[in-house]
Amino acid sequence: MPRHGQERVAARPLKIVHVGDFFFSLKKNAPSQFSVGGKLSHGLIRNGHHVIDVSYRDIARAGGWFGSRKLGRRYLWRALKAFLALSAPDLLLLGHGYMIPPAVIAEIRRQQPGMLIVQWNIDALFVPDNARDFAARHQVVDASFISTAGSVVRECVGEEGRVYFLPNPVDASIERGRAFANQFLKADLFYSCGNPARERLICGQSWEMNRFCQMLEGTLPPTMRYAYAGVRGQPYVNGPFYAALLEQSAMGLNISRRADYYLYSSDRLAQMIGNGQLVVMERQTGYDRLFSDQEMGFFNTLEELSEMLRFFHHHPKARQAVARAGWQRYHQLFNERAVANYLIGQTLGTLLEDEHRWRHIAAI
């Protein structure tokens, strides 16, 4: 927002080529309707920019033998370079983009000297391959955005270059549920896990997630109902089936592989709170610096987690109030237009001091 007595002059809209994953993939059986890349493109377009989405994996599959993404890498590189030469964008935005190596990015920079290049990434930096790839691309782009904050990011990429925290965006046209509006829903607790055998560090202890969920159930009232995806014998789901679980669950358990990377969370955080669930997560994540105990459920110990879930199960109106407040604040801070505005403002260096105040808490 402008300072008092100061009028902002609208900047010229940008032409942006956004390379990433969006709401359609040739490989997947169901649309990735919660795609971060799609939300960012929505936000950029709604802010007035001309955005051209380039689904890099699908281009590689289309150009590779037998539909092989790996065999289509060189085809992708040629196609992208040719398109950039023809379209002359102001900004090349790379979402993940692991198939586009630093050498190709450097070549694109030489061919398009007036174009800015930015990468964004929501993968965890505690996974060595992710950290290595993100750091390598950081050396050849103008700015990097990552869904982790704190000193660990600088340790990963080095002291040179501009790197910023990227919140997981929410989009009201995508996260359409309002679980807080209902006192009684089909499920009390939602949890989704792509690989339950991969252990997660929870309150300082490693857990296989089938075992963790079984343990947690044993501490909760027998009247609790669970909406699981990928754990406890339930299939992993996506598309409308996944959306239904989000919309019809009162509370959501947000557990990533570890909680000690400042502000890191999988993008399920936005999906759960965006659909009106009361999100429950470890205090160690640092999200208690952005949200209060009246907006999210934070715990330090497993006993505290169990006690909290029992309380909100028996007091649905209290759960509704906290979930509604969290939903409102998350949509206010991290909606797709706000995150897109922040990304462009940080890239161009045009943000005012009082814009996106949370960024000072998340400074890298």
TrEMBL record:
<protein>
    <submittedName>
        <fullName>Glycosyltransferase</fullName>
    </submittedName>
</protein>
<dbReference type="InterPro" id="IPR055259">
    <property type="entry name" value="YkvP/CgeB_Glyco_trans-like"/>
</dbReference>
<dbReference type="Pfam" id="PF13524">
    <property type="entry name" value="Glyco_trans_1_2"/>
</dbReference>
<feature type="domain" description="Spore protein YkvP/CgeB glycosyl transferase-like">
    <location>
        <begin position="225"/>
        <end position="342"/>
    </location>
</feature>
